[in-house]
Amino acid sequence: MEDVMKEEKQEIPTIYTLDEIQKVINTPNFATDLIHAIQEGFVALERGEFFACPIQTMGLPPFPFVEDIEGYAAQTCVKSGYFRGQDYYVIKIASGGYPIPNSGLMQIYSQRTGKMKAILLDDGVLTEIRTAAVGSLACQLLGPSIIETIGMVGTGIQARYQLNMLKTVTECRTIHLWGRTTNKVEILRDELLKDGWETVHIVNDIDDLLKECDVIITTTCSREPLLGKDLTVLSHRKRPGLHISCIGSDAPGKMELSPHLVAKADLLVADTVSQSVERGEFQSAYREGLIPVVDSNSSTLLSLGRLIERKDLHRNDTEDGRFTIFDSSGVALQDCIVAQMTYAALNQQL
Amino acid sequence: MEDVMKEEKQEIPTIYTLDEIQKVINTPNFATDLIHAIQEGFVALERGEFFACPIQTMGLPPFPFVEDIEGYAAQTCVKSGYFRGQDYYVIKIASGGYPIPNSGLMQIYSQRTGKMKAILLDDGVLTEIRTAAVGSLACQLLGPSIIETIGMVGTGIQARYQLNMLKTVTECRTIHLWGRTTNKVEILRDELLKDGWETVHIVNDIDDLLKECDVIITTTCSREPLLGKDLTVLSHRKRPGLHISCIGSDAPGKMELSPHLVAKADLLVADTVSQSVERGEFQSAYREGLIPVVDSNSSTLLSLGRLIERKDLHRNDTEDGRFTIFDSSGVALQDCIVAQMTYAALNQQL
């Protein structure tokens, strides 16, 4: 009886493994194309052309997945979104938190039929890459024209992805590196030297980065300010112009910069202005009244989408002495873009 | 560089096709086991052991998937949930609405690792079956001991699934059938006669069902009352005891029963009491003040989970002349149970 009830069966979706995905994302133009696509995506977001569902979260108290492990904090998030008028919608399932390793996959569905086309078993790699891409995009728009030294705060996976992606937007190959754990800093230094970086200098006092570097990327999950305890170093900088991209610490209560350092910036940019009031680097500075209430048209704070369209605010003058900060908390459109780009590239290979 | 970053890759999830799924759900005990598992699931729900995320909906205005089709109304829902302390969590993706056919798939993930185990490409069949199971469960708990005639309102897919499932809870093989479209009614009658039903009588006046039948199932998507326009027929019933399971019309504004018929019932049961105030059969009767404000302990309205535990309210007396109504609007735990049962059965087959 069941046979007469359904006219059309679901075609079998294609499953792409991490190996296949890595081949595609390691091709020469992928990083550049991704940065460009994400730039266009943020403009579309600003114009109201992207829709993201409220995130579904599972595994949190009072419904933890596992109850017999001390300190258990794993959870799963379901993030769904799409651009109006494009071919696909994307659902990302991401899991992580003690004691399970971060993992994830992305699913591609047809907007026209609703049916699943593919699963990208990227194991979280596409999330790392799209996060790296937005950091590099911010450096491209706001980094000084001459970058002699890049500062890196943090020694984790995202630090590696950020630096790898940064190679596509700057020719600078000098890094000043700070991390909490000596051993991890040394491992990363050795890796980077093998990976084409010319100079990797380990920094003991994190605020030395503010003196020496033209661009700084922060990638930790700190709950307290790391950078900017001593603001006097800012007046001893060697060159004018400083940009900081804050990639880590995107939850409420987490931060990597001192609110007083944030208050010193000439221009603050957030991937989502509304999120930046509640989470990430700007939250404390707001609460302490150190930066003005948001007014996207004229204030020192604006969204990444608006920055992209405001070409007059991009850094294009070697003498531009501005101090700029970009804060990323991550938005669904980045997932949607990286998934669609990867799927298209995988399809082309066939 | 990427290789050193990830210790452990996602194993390839298993994809099960509709053919494989249908073999499993057509095995002799599947329907009985499913009804039993859903009965236990509703008790667990009542005890707070099931968690469902708010539903994600995509494709609705002002973000339709497709803008160039007149009357376009397709959408996709993402429904996620899990039982505390069980092995898996389940995500269902269901699409439907003009002009695309209903479709869907279910995904099984490990609660312990967060990783995807399997995709059931059931194309919506598992949703049909779990809906049929809850209708049969209600008939089992509330149907008269002697069922001589089953009334069916509607001639669609769910009507077929309901009747197929009902065979496992009653030996009655006589159906009185009502539908709006003569042609469809006749097709269904012929199908049912081939399918083991002994008598299928086509009814022209729907309210005759109230006079002739011991159990009635409604499966339409009506926006206006169909059954119970003439309540005088109730006093001409041949046998005491009547149960109606209302399966269709579960959206706000939709209904299949007259609110005055609802008001005549001795006992009203809803899969979710809070939903039943806003959608389905009881909403109008509430609004018109025909049935009392909810009080689950003593009132005439209670949840299915509570009914299951209140054995004193189950129908077990051939002389029980009560008139009972069950209204289903569908809850995520049914998806979770049918997906986990099907996955377990598919695994055992290997």
Provide structural commentary.
2 copies of one chain form a homodimer. With 350 residues, the first copy, chain A, is an alpha/beta fold. Helices cover 33% and strands 22% of the residues of chain A. In chain A, helix 5 links the parallel strand 8 and strand 9. Chain A has 12 helices and 15 strands. The N terminus of chain A is likely disordered. In chain A, helix 3 crosses helix 4, helix 3 crosses helix 12 and helix 4 crosses helix 12. Chain A is globular. An 8-stranded parallel beta sheet of chain A has the order 10-9-8-11-12-15-13-14. At the A-B interface, helix 1, strand 3, strand 4, strand 5 and strand 6 of A face helix 1, strand 3, strand 4, strand 5 and strand 6 of B.
Concise overview:
The structure is a homodimer of 350-residue chains. Chain A is α/β, with parallel strands linked by helices and 350 residues long.
